[in-house]
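Render this sequence as a predicted structure.
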Amino acid sequence: MFLNEKVGAVIVAAGQSRRMEGQDKIFSLLAGKPVLAHTLSVFQESPQVDDIALVMAEHNIEKAKELVKEYNFSKVIAICFGGTLRQDSVRSGLSALCDCGWILIHDGRAPCLSLTLYPKGWKRLNSAVRPSRQCRSKIPLKKYPRKGWWKKPCPERG
């Protein structure tokens, strides 16, 4: 809950693993556990997150169901089909969380996040949340000083 409204998380893991030559990185083991299980654990353990919609490629739906059951991810209320584009996959997850006032969107392949990352950002805004970092450039910019600027990392760079 945040501001007395339900918080949902859309975990997007619907990629085709083209760069991994068909090996699905979300099911690759990291410290003895699938990468996706690590990611879901953070949201499962977060007291602020009420519901999770997991978005998967069609060929991974059954594996995802098994993973959710094996690790007892009780906050996963829906396992949705991903779309052709990432935006289609996000839309699919959003439709499963229609009663949430706040929704976090996170990549399933990115397990290294902190339980405090999103709540810290919530204190500063009234709408969507995305982690960002203050710009720290060693290149002096006279025309565009970076003081007060924040950068939002692209999904590929985390």
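Summary. Residues 41 and 131 are 18 Å apart (CA to CA). The two ends are 26 Å apart (CA to CA).
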